[in-house]
């Protein structure tokens, strides 16, 4: 997408505004991802971005877990274990390929929600808040020069995996952010025009 003609406000975008939109509109998912992953200072920025998500009721319904370095080996064990428990009729060896998922990026961030059942805020809004936090993280990951890939699937919704990763029974894993350096940036994702999904409401039509 060519962002050179974007004018965020007024007749002329400032260089900082243009740089912001150039970054924002160039984000896409990359897979697989290589070393290195973000360092601790960069991770602080990524999680600080998550904290800026809209949060009705200030419930802070998000929970995150980092998996990196040597912990990826045990994460691979967990992936094989939970797949074998889901399909006990299959030989365990048929699930061994699941182990490789733990090594497709140097960092995995587990995204989870801790919805409050005692709040007047609907659970749907709380889950949307977690999604907004995850999107802020993906934008921060991209702005720092890394690639991110949000994955879900059967593992994310498996109670055995949630328990193995030390989440509480009341918490819900919603997916995984795989983070690292893109192996290639050659192919930009083609996006449809936003006009397909946007309409202007002009008031109630007469009945």
Automatic annotation (TrEMBL):
Keyword NAD: yes
Name of the protein described by the UniProt record: Putative NAD(P)H nitroreductase
EC number in record: 1.-.-.-
Alphabetical list of Gene3D superfamilies matching this protein: NADH Oxidase
Family: Belongs to the nitroreductase family.
Nitroreductase domain residues: 35-181
Assigned keywords, A-Z: Flavoprotein, FMN, NAD, NADP, Oxidoreductase
Organism: Paraburkholderia terricola
InterPro entries xref list: NAD(P)H_nitroreductase, Nitroreductase, Nitroreductase-like, YdjA-like
